[in-house]
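Here comes just one.
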Amino acid sequence: MRSILTPMSLIKLKGLRALLVLAPALLLTSCSKVSGLGYEEGLSSVNDQSLSLWQGAWIAAFVVGGITLILILWPAMFHRAKKDGPEFPKQTQYHIPIEIVYTIIPFIIVAVLFYFTAKKETVISEKTTTYAHEITVEGIQWSWQFGYPEAGPQAVVTGTPAQPPVLYVPLGERVRYTITSNDVVHGFWIPAFMIQMQNLPGVTNHLEFTANKLGDFPGRCNILCGRNHSQMIFTVRVVTPEQFKTYLETLKGSAA
């Protein structure tokens, strides 16, 4: 007897084909180079650690989202109520294996993300004795004050909301940032470098990293700190080591 495909059967068949085509496409995409998803690779030593974590979190989110979408569409497309079937499907109050699965899988996902986050954070927050320069970063309402101890105690650049300051950083040399606040909590944040550290009143934080690309990069305060919080910006200017030395000499001259 020759089977006849009804319109509903054709829809189901097309849906199944779409799922079968989508799965290999996702696998092939995962084998290729993963996008930075808004971030550029190799800008700083922090990017070398944070970028893979950022990409991995998005991949995990897409996988979980894709599986969830399939689980939603599958019963909607292939288990629709039949006209000649029962009016109400059989109800199952408990299904122990499924309950165990949807308890264990989220736990595994969280545990894996926690492990890699802790591992990367340990490397990013590591303090060394081999840094080449030190720069002080003080948050003030509502701007920034950058100090360069190498050029003397008076080598301080203070910005205003109307004239945001520029933070000069040498290319390829590790810098330790001493981060403080003289009023409220601020957030020293360089989005392109995938790094932020809080400026806490009465607390001194330290952060070390190396900038690996010349250019200007925007900086922000990412903690709501008052009326002019949105104007609390600065620019990170990565220059050659020679240009950085020249800048320090300029600061010494202006402080004299």
Notes: The longest strand covers residues 133-140. Residues 11 and 77 are 8 Å apart (CA to CA). The chain is about 40% helix and 25% strand. The helical segments are 7-31, 47-78, 96-124, 241-255.
